[in-house]
Design a protein that fits this description.
164 residues, alpha+beta, Arc Repressor Mutant, subunit A, 2 domains, 4-stranded antiparallel sheet, two-stranded antiparallel ribbon, 6 helices, 6 strands, 36% helix, globular, transcription regulation
Length: 164
């Protein structure tokens, strides 16, 4: 899913990673899917993204192995949504570290508030992206809750392969 150039055959793993993840929509879509918001309409509305752009990104992310299509019932019919693959779930430390970096190095808009990342296994907030700063365990999506005061929300993350 090249953003500007095709780096898929480069020796540098950072370039190859950016070939897949370099579009900012990709990480935002993964964030929402890990929060159980993998239905097309929900993604579109939550992200404020056009249907055409979202359709292209979702197709490319399925092709890249970041998302899988999953069926879900919608009244009398079955629709398809998107679930994180194991590859996407491995991006959790990067997403959490981006949140930590953003809180430290960007200005919080008025009305915002600190986003706490709670490791449900020990019940404490972590200040690290990959390993819980309280208990030392590796952080995985299904054991994490993100507390977002600007939305008055506590979002429990979903394990790979599930659509809430």
């Amino acid at each position: 899913m090249p953003l500007r150039s095709d780096w898929s055959t480069e020796y540098c793993p950072i370039r190859r990673s950016l070939d897949v993840l370099g579009d900012p929509w990709v990480l935002l879509i993964i964030r929402d899917v890990l929060h159980g918001r993998g239905r097309f309409d929900t993604l579109r509305d939550n992200l404020g993204i056009s249907e055409a752009v979202l359709s292209r990104r979702l197709a490319a992310m399925v092709e890249a192995g970041l998302l899988s299509r999953v069926d879900y019932p919608d009244g009398n019919r079955t629709r398809q949504g998107y679930a994180a693959t194991a590859a996407a779930a491995e991006l959790l430390p990067i997403l959490q570290q981006l949140a930590i970096w953003g809180e430290r190095h960007t200005t919080m808009p008025d009305g915002g508030g600190h986003m706490a990342m709670i490791h449900e296994t020990c019940g404490h907030e972590t200040t690290q992206g990959q390993i819980c700063s309280s208990c030392g365990e590796t952080l995985v999506a299904q054991e994490m809750t993100w507390v977002k005061p600007w939305k008055n929300a506590r979002d429990r993350l979903q394990p790979a392969g599930t659509l809430a």
